[in-house]
Design a protein that fits this description.
Blueprint lengths: L1 E5 L3 H12 L3 E6 L15 E4 L5 H7 L6 E4 L4 H14 L4 E5 L3 H9 L3 E3 L1 H13 L2
Parallel strand pairs: 1-2, 1-4, 2-3, 4-5, 5-6
Length: about 130
């Protein structure tokens, strides 16, 4: 699989590392070069500085050949915007974005995006652990 990840925070860096270790082609983008330092030294993918809401940056990252795009920055709006660009403009088959605000998760799903809210996921997980 050829994956582009937007955001090299803890989640983005860990996902990039996991996918790379499984043998996938991984390109990770972050607007801040410092964040790319989170990648482990054995990371064999491509790390680029740039804004993944910019179509030219996405082209340079190889989005035309990507099978998947993942947006995991801290900004819900940027994640959704980049996901829509990847899905609607570049026709990437699998697009996933992180959305912190649970009501927005449903809204973005209604737009055809695969949105995941870690807030809602974690709340449900804790609820399950509490029992009854």
């Amino acid at each position: 699989m050829n994956v582009i990840i937007m955001g090299c925070g803890r989640v983005g860096a860990e996902l990039a590392h996991l996918l790379d270790a499984e043998g996938h082609k991984v390109t990770i983008l972050d607007a801040d070069t410092k964040n790319l330092q989170r990648l482990p030294s054995e990371f064999g993918g491509i790390a680029l500085t740039g804004d993944a809401t910019d179509e030219d940056v996405l082209r340079k990252a190889g989005i035309a050949e990507a099978n998947a795009f993942v947006a995991v920055t801290r900004d819900d709006d940027r994640n959704a915007m980049a996901a829509q660009i990847a899905k609607q403009i570049f026709d990437v088959p699998k697009v996933v974005c992180r959305i912190y605000d649970p009501p927005r998760e449903e809204f973005y799903r209604s737009l055809g995006l695969e949105a995941i809210s870690p807030t809602a996921l974690f709340a449900r997980l804790i609820r399950e652990r509490l029992g009854n």
